[in-house]
Structure formats: structure tokens, C-alpha cells
Write a structure and sequence with these properties.
330 residues, two-stranded antiparallel sheet, mainly alpha, 2% strand
């Protein structure tokens, strides 16, 4: 999917220099990173305003959501600014990382949009029945959401893929940054997989604010037990990120095993335990739990089918990249 030419530093007789484009895309990424950084105080101010509004129907501030939101936007801000500077300097590593991250952004954006089309109409229907929103407001909200998702989750990463994936951009970075980078040591399809594991390591950090709740083969772990289980998962994902980058065959098999165990655990857990109980364990406020119920998004079958779907997709990709591991197995 993220195919690239050979990683060796070959001389290209002629190419169109894309330094101007790299600078333009770099500036746009820095602007986007600055916007993400500004979202942190705006989010905090908005949540604080809701908490002191005094409205009886106001949803109380959820500290867990606030912590997760702050962490997410700060992480994106650092990432976009870092990639933007690397793009302006025409660094090889920046082109590679922007390309693989854009592919992940695009794939998850397309899949997320499909799931939204399938499952969200039921949520809006429940909101109309419960009188939470007038029908005309719901219609406008649907249209705005569709436009936003198409532009931000599909069009934007798609443009980045087309630009950073072009031969001219690759040649420009190799010409202006002739020393091979650490990203050149790993095929881009595998680098993207390693990058995904690294994201997994980082993404579990906010789980501390949710009482370390984790599905575990038919039960829910939380507190110290959940923290220990999550710590083990972090260690495994860290190994997968490193081992995959190094093209170790053991890392490929470990990824297959972790994927199967994770899917079995999810199916076993949510076949017995309701999503509402899961959210309660995560210490969601009572009023927010009622809102989730009213929106009709507590169906366990949705979680189970989505887990199976992503397992099939991920296993297919593991099979696709396996050829890179065979000759480099250690």
C-alpha cells in the first residue's frame, strides 16, 4: 500500500525540484500544529464555561475526557510542527514519516467515515425521538459532519499522499539531504506498521485517567490489575515497534498472536458485559451515561463486529508485509 522505490541513494539524471512544495506543505503543517496547540486552552475554557453555566441540563465536565483531549491536541501540535520543520528542510525522514502517517490517516479516515454512515443515523434518530435536537438542526449537523469528515479525513491526507509519494519529491529530498536517514533502513510499508505500534504505545497513556479499565477475556480489569495489564501491553507494543522496524520475523509472529488474543478477549468480554458497565467502570458521570444511552451507542454487537472487521483488515496487511521479513529474519 505504501510502496516506494528502493531505499538506496541512487542518482537520478533529471527530476523536477519540489523544494517550494515542501516548504509550502511544511508551513501548512506548522499552522495546523499551532491550531492544535490553541485547541487546548479553547477546550478548557469551553468545558469550564459549561460547568459554571448553571443550566440544569448541562452535562458535567468529565475530567477523563479533558485529560485525553489535552494530551491528544498537544501530541498533534508537536507532531505537525516537527514534521513541518522537517519538510521545509527537505529531510528524508520527514518525507517518509509524513507519507506513512498520511496513509494511516487516510485509511482510518475512510473506515471511520464508513462506520459513521452505518451507525450514526441511529444515533441521530434517537436524538430526534428524545427531543434533544430539532429535526432541522439534526439535518444541518449531518451535512456539516459529512463535509468535515470528507475534507479532513480523506481529502487532506489524500493530497499529502499524492505530494509526498511522488518521485520528484523523493528525488528532491535525496538530492538536498544526500546522507541516508534512519527511515531508509526500513521499507515504507513496514515503517508504517512500526509507526502504528508506536502510536499504540502512546495512546494507552491517557488510560490512567479512566481507572486503567481493560477488557480481559470475559472480565474487566481496573485499578492496579488493569495498570499491570496495560503496562504489559505497552511493553509488547514497544517491542513490536522496534522489532518490526528491524524486520525481525519474531515481531511479525508476535503481532499475529497479539491480534488474535486481543480479538478473542474483546469478543469474550463484550459478549458478557454491557458497554454501559464498561463506561461505568471508567468513572463516566451519571449524566453522561444517560446521554450515551439516549444516543443509542451502547450496543455490544457494534463493538464485536468492528473488532472482527479490523482484525481481518490488519491480518491482511500483516500478510502483505510478511515478504519484507522473510529475507531479513533474525
Amino acid at each position: 500500500m505504501i510502496e516506494d522505490k528502493k531505499q538506496e541513494n541512487v542518482s537520478i539524471p533529471y527530476f523536477q525540484d519540489r523544494k517550494g512544495g515542501l516548504i509550502a506543505f511544511g508551513v501548512l503543517q506548522i499552522i495546523l500544529g499551532s491550531f492544535c496547540f490553541l485547541m487546548v486552552p479553547l477546550m478548557l475554557i469551553g468545558m469550564l464555561a459549561l460547568s459554571v453555566s448553571g443550566r440544569p441540563d448541562a452535562v458535567p465536565v468529565n475530567p477523563q475526557v479533558m485529560v485525553q483531549g489535552v494530551f491528544f491536541y498537544l501530541l498533534l501540535a508537536v507532531w505537525f510542527v516537527w514534521m513541518g520543520i522537517g519538510s521545509i528542510k527537505a529531510r528524508r525522514w520527514a518525507r517518509a514519516l509524513v507519507l506513512v502517517s498520511s496513509w494511516l490517516w487516510f485509511v482510518f479516515g475512510v473506515m471511520g467515515f464508513i462506520f459513521w454512515i452505518i451507525f450514526m443515523p441511529n444515533m441521530y434518530s434517537q436524538m430526534a425521538v428524545n427531543g434533544q435536537m430539532p429535526s432541522n438542526v439534526i439535518t444541518i449537523t449531518k451535512i456539516v459532519t459529512i463535509i468535515f469528515m470528507i475534507v479532513f479525513y480523506i481529502v487532506v491526507p489524500g493530497i499529502a499522499i499524492l505530494f509526498y509519494g511522488s518521485k520528484n519529491v523523493k528525488a528532491t529530498c535525496e538530492s538536498r539531504n544526500p546522507v541516508p536517514s534512519w527511515t531508509d533502513k526500513c521499507p515504507l510499508p513496514v515503517l508504517g506498521l512500526s509507526f502504528l505500534y508506536a502510536i499504540g504505545v502512546i495512546s494507552v497513556i491517557p488510560m490512567a485517567s479512566y481507572n486503567f479499565v481493560m477488557p480481559f477475556f470475559g472480565s474487566l480489569l481496573s485499578g492496579a490489575a488493569g495498570a499491570l495489564a496495560i503496562f504489559c501491553v505497552v511493553l509488547i507494543l514497544g517491542y513490536l515497534a522496534f522489532g518490526t522496524y528491524k524486520l525481525h520475523m519474531k515481531a511479525w509472529w508476535a503481532a499475529v498472536l497479539l491480534m488474535l488474543l486481543g480479538t478473542i478477549s474483546t469478543i469474550m468480554t463484550f459478549s458478557k458485559i454491557s458497554l454501559l458497565e464498561f463506561y461505568q467502570k471508567m468513572n463516566f458521570p451519571e449524566q453522561q451515561l444517560k446521554l450515551i444511552q439516549q444516543m443509542g451507542i451502547t450496543r455490544n454487537s457494534n463493538i464485536i463486529w468492528q473488532s472482527v472487521f479490523w482484525t481481518v483488515i490488519f491480518f491482511g496487511y500483516l500478510l502483505y508485509v510478511r515478504k519484507f521479513f522473510v529475507k531479513n529474519s533474525k
